[in-house]
Amino acid sequence: MENGKAVILIVDDKPANILVLETLLGSPDRTLLSAHSGSEALKMALEEDVDLIILDVQMPDIDGFEVAQLLKQKKRTRDIPIIFATAESKEHSFVMQGYSEGAIDYLFKPLDPDIARAKVAVLLKIQMQQKELREKNISLQNAALLINNSADIIGIVDAGSFLIEEINPAFEAILGFSYQEAIGKSVFYFLQPEDETRIKEMAAAQKDRLSFETYTLCKDQSWKWLHWNIVAGKEKWFVNTRDITEQKFAEKRKLEQERAEQSLKQHKLITEVTIQAQEKERTELGRELHDNINQILATVRMYLKMSLTTPSKQEELVRRSADNLDHAIEEIRKLSKSLVAPSLGDMGLLVALKELAEEINIAGDLKVAVLTEINESIKIDKNMEVMLYRIAQEQLNNIRKYASATHAVISLSMDRHHLSFSIADDGVGFDTKQKAKGIGLKNISSRVDFYSGDISINSEPGKGCELEISIPLH
Known about the structure:
Elements: E1 6-11, H1 15-25, E2 30-35, H2 38-47, E3 52-56, H3 64-73, E4 82-86, H4 92-100, E5 103-108, H5 113-148, E6 153-158, E7 164-167, H6 170-175, H7 179-182, H8 193-204, E8 209-217, E9 223-232, E10 236-243, H9 245-309, H10 314-339, H11 348-363, E11 367-372, H12 382-403, E12 407-414, E13 418-425, H13 439-450, E14 454-459, E15 465-472
Parallel strand pairs: 1-2, 1-3, 3-4, 4-5, 11-12
Antiparallel strand pairs: 6-7, 6-10, 8-9, 9-10, 12-13, 13-15, 14-15
Helix pairs in contact: 2-3, 9-10, 9-13, 11-12, 12-13
């Protein structure tokens, strides 16, 4: 066939005979070729895509029977149908010789136009159908080759019963179940119950394409991740399934690496903040010792010296020295308590927070309340309790120094999955978009990050500030 047209090769050593056949058989949907000898016919049949040959039996160089015999020996030409055209005898032996050489039919001269046209039309139709069938077979063979050698599972499932009707060898290569073990079984036989529920829900939603992942148990009891793509027809499901186990493991390794890098980064940040906090504490300790305790002790020293030179006031000066020493001892006790990591012991976080609030309330510059629905007997991880207590100390210290607040509220709540902790004040507030984190807030943030928690600061100028913390309970 050439450009959608059937190709007919007419072979005859007499041009007049060729002309007669061309006149009879000419049609817009046909291409007519002609050869004037057997040799020329063989050459053209090998070069052109011929659909039908009308071959004269009696030719001077090679007769029609011999040409037919040679055509049948070549792979390219063996399937071309041949009609012998002859004016020779119609005797049985002569006709049978033509059939034995590969002829499909005969045209006897003089030609009957109607018979000639009918025979050619029928043979062309049969040839076109056979050629189409051969092409489809080749396509099917190629498709089967692709399917059977695919690394993906490819199969057909009945849309009503979910039974597997066809499956390729990749099913056994991936899951370990043979063709015989798979055919006739429900596709859900090889999946988990929760997968069956999920897939049936998607199918019930009348989606024509389903895409999902499953964690599937193989025949050897190993587990594999599979990605499914299903074209869901009304009667059949066309299934394509890929093994993505290595991809999943690669993603997991990447995630673990990212977490490790994040943990290292977090550890470095915590170390940095810890060092900064330690330096800050040292500075504050030095300032407290110099500006407060040192001055008290200097006063004691002055009173004691005066008592040596003023006997009449010695008793009063010694009493004042003792009072100042008591004051210095109390200040040192307070300073030590603020510096040493608290051991909350059996009292728990709630009791410790209430004691901290009471100490600040006694000082009088800030009123602190502790609100919670948690029973005091409920215990939290000891290290987390210390962390939250330190955050309360840090934030309340920041409020007293910078917020000009009169009231603060510590709130603590907990459910099965999270612990929520907040400290709010009615101070001057600040613009969270413009004000960078100070060392205090940075230190609080690093403590929360250590427990994979979340921290948020809500504040506006003139509207106070609220520090909110949420920590997952693993």
